[in-house]
TrEMBL record:
Annotated organism of origin: Emericellopsis cladophorae
Superkingdom field: Eukaryota
Keyword field contains GTP-binding: no
Xref: InterPro entries: Glyco_trans_15, Nucleotide-diphossugar_trans
Keywords from the named record: Glycosyltransferase, Membrane, Transferase, Transmembrane, Transmembrane helix
Signal sequence annotation: none
Protein name (Swiss-Prot/TrEMBL): Alpha 1
Entry-linked SUPFAM superfamilies: Nucleotide-diphospho-sugar transferases
Length: 465
């Protein structure tokens, strides 16, 4: 009697565990095709390299070729998954009817906000409902958004470090997708390591050649002379061809990659960055609710040697396309003489949360296309940071650009550590406030505040030098 009962009990548990494991596996894996919309923007034929190892029959236990330890939990070892993984996935138990991270998702971010936002208001400050809930999956709505990283295979360990911090401080509760883009195919190590660290789905895209090469109107000899000259003058990345392709790609193409067409908002993450504070709320949702199109955490002055004629090209664009220049824009951030000259202020674009729909708008595309025709990505060394910044500054009304004080961030050599002692304690920050760059002489963030009539956070005077 007793023995029979026990056996049955054990069998029930075994079945339950297998199903949980299977469910966890299915809801955390995206080794199938991305839904890529045909047509739309002119992106050419692109090979989308989606998913990691053995996309066919991912259910069958696959022996790993040339394997080290299996870095990836679910997919490679489904036989182990139930025991190892199921208990560590509380979201599976919380919302058994919905895939994790996409509960109730339907339609555009705005629509979704109207449908579900009221039940789960953003936890913007201590004491707000949900503020103390930093475990488990966030019950609120998700935006139509993704992380995006441009990287080489050799960047794997530095991007792994970045991902881990983004996950620990934010995404483990939100499970947003992560798109990786590369001018070469990603290798298995890159895919295994990154997909094991990201809590959302991962997508791997190859960049079409026409987005990572010299356009036909570029004079190769002239471009080469510039690189030699810049090398002599010791300008950073001045002699690099790939750095120029990278800057042009980030300026004008990443948001048109077929995989990116599936999203409305992006958060750009680079290798080797740090995130220093807990994020209690979803910044994508802040962008949607506050109707922001572009955001930053650090700003500074550009090296003049890299952009001698960028402002001339910008003025030409403004003259040819007055219809794209926003009323109430942020020209004051970019120019001290009403647009005559550029003061070289720019948002540091290695961090960005922004609207893909804005980058895909006629206004921005016309702006980029006009600059691209002038050739400065190759005849000089225009960076994507001043290009995005001038675009945002002129094409958007100033209310649509956001400064995220709460997102503490480091990319060599600058730190944004939130101003305000109480803020840093509330957010469990581990950055040194003395290193905060915001109010120092070489930062442009003061100018942004002044241009927008914003009040600087308490304690900023103490961090001036
Ligand atoms: N696929 C690919 N990615 C690149 C290439 N060059 C740069 N990247 C990526 O583009 C982004 C910017 O490049 P970085 O080398 O970080 O440039 P940076 O931030 O100006 O300079 P650092 O101070 O060196 O970080 C990073 O995410 C890189 O991984 C390249 O040739 N191919
Ligand atoms: C997200 O946005 C993209 C781009 O606008 C759109 O094509 C896609 O259908 C949206 N996805 C969802 C699930 O609404
Ligand atoms: Mg970098």
């Amino acid at each position: 009697m007793m023995a029979t009962g026990n056996t049955r009990f054990v069998r029930y548990i075994a079945i339950a565990v297998v199903f949980l494991g299977l469910y966890y596996f299915l809801s955390h894996t995206d080794y199938h095709s991305v839904d890529i919309r045909p047509g739309g923007l002119n992106t050419g034929d692109v090979k989308v390299n989606d998913g990691a190892v053995s996309p066919e029959a991912p259910m069958a236990p696959q022996p790993q070729e040339g394997s080290q330890a299996p870095v990836q939990p679910g997919p490679e070892s489904p036989a182990e998954a139930p025991i190892k993984e199921a208990p560590a996935a509380p979201e599976v138990q919380d919302t058994p009817a919905e895939p994790a991270g996409h509960a109730g998702y339907s339609g555009s971010s705005k629509l979704l906000e109207d449908q579900f936002g009221a039940e789960h208001p953003l936890a913007m400050s201590p004491g707000a409902p949900g503020w103390d809930n930093l475990e488990g999956t966030d019950p609120g709505p998700r935006m139509n958004a993704t992380f995006v990283t441009l990287a080489r295979n050799s960047d794997v360990w530095e991007i792994a470090k970045s991902i881990r911090q983004v996950e620990d401080r934010f995404n483990k509760r939100f499970n947003y997708d992560w798109v990786f883009l590369n001018d070469k195919p990603f290798d298995d190590t890159f895919k295994q390591v990154t997909s094991s660290l990201v809590s959302g789905k991962t997508h791997y895209g190859e960049i079409p050649e026409e987005h990572w090469s010299f356009p036909e109107w570029i004079d190769q000899e002239k471009a080469k002379k510039v690189r030699d000259d810049m090398k002599q003058r010791g300008i950073i990345y001045g002699d690099s061809v790939s750095y120029r392709h990278m800057c042009r790609y980030e300026s004008g193409f990443f948001f048109r990659h077929p995989i990116m067409l599936n999203y409305e908002y992006y958060w750009r993450v680079e290798p080797s960055i740090e995130l220093y504070c807990d994020l209690h709320y979803d910044p994508f949702r802040v962008m949607v609710e506050e109707n922001k199109k572009y955001s930053f955490v650090l700003s500074l002055y550009e090296y003049p040697e890299t952009i001698p004629t960028l402002w001339d090209s910008t003025k030409k664009f403004m003259k040819n396309h007055p219809e794209h220049i926003a009323e109430g824009n942020t020209m004051k951030f970019l120019s001290d003489d009403g647009g005559e000259t550029y003061n070289r202020c720019h948002f540091w674009s290695n961090f960005e949360i922004g609207s893909l729909d804005w980058l895909r708008s006629d206004a921005y595309i016309d702006f980029f296309t006009s600059l691209d025709k002038d050739g400065g990505f190759f005849y000089e060394r225009w960076g994507d940071a001043p290009v995005h910044s001038i675009g945002a500054g002129l094409l958007l009304p100033k209310e649509e650009i956001k400064f995220f004080n709460d997102i503490a961030y480091y990319h060599n050599p600058f730190t944004h550590c939130p101003t305000g002692e109480q803020t840093r304690i509330d957010l469990k920050c581990h950055c040194d406030p003395q290193k905060n760059f915001d109010w120092k002489g070489y930062s442009c963030t003061s100018r942004f505040f002044e241009a927008n009539g914003l009040e600087k956070p308490q304690g900023w005077e103490q961090q001036k030098d």
